[in-house]
Amino acid sequence: MTDRQFLQGIINHDQATFKLLVENHQQLVIRTCYSLVHDLEDARDLAQEVFIEILKSASSFRGNAKLSSWIYRIAVNKSLNHLKRAKRREAFTLFSFQDRRGGEKGEQITDRNSYHGGDVAMEEKELKEVLHAAINRLPVNQKIAFTLHNYEELPYKEIAEVMNVSLSSVESLIHRAKLNLQKRLSYYYHLNLR
After folding, report:
1. Residue 106: how many CB atoms within 10 A of its CB?
2. 159 CB contacts (<8 Å, ≥6 apart)?
3. Does some domain include residue 138?
4. Are 174 and 152 in contact (CB under 8 A)?
5. 124-178 tens-digit pLDDT
6. Spatial separation of the C-alpha atoms in residues 151 and 67, rounded to whole Å
7. CA-to-CA distance for 50 and 41, rounded, in angstroms?
8. Residue 102 forms part of a structural domain
9. Is residue 103 part of a domain?
């Protein structure tokens, strides 16, 4: 089925077409959301929101990008909005429930040398958490470009369509993201090479 046929079926409220669209794109949407929010349950909830948005806005899709690029864009936007809401909730929580000693809660990167076990699974989990935290601290456009390229394995051209930027901008964003991650993670890896 072509992109145009999918869209026309959705606009006409054809349940079989919508079901097929969900079956074809659900894993892509969940993976995209997960790569940005790093929580599977949240990613699944966001995927539902993405498909509801597709139903609502199918008639406004202009067709100047591939259907999959449009779906990626919706998934990225829903994920970023989710992260903004979570950040606001976190800021409110930190503001409302400060440490009783009067100290502030700050960001920490765990020193793996303080880990006394040899459990590889725990070390891998910790490494993932540190990497996700570093990716989350990237500027938004760098985070999107890096995530779509490295987690979703999209070519630069499709990332440019999803983000509505030029190809050279995508190349620059990914390059800067890699440099920022190298800087942020070098301390962590330096600790572990001792």
Report:
1. 6
2. 145, 148, 149, 170
3. yes
4. no
5. 777 778 888 888 889 989 999 998 998 888 899 999 988 989 999 999 999 999 9
6. 19
7. 14
8. no
9. no
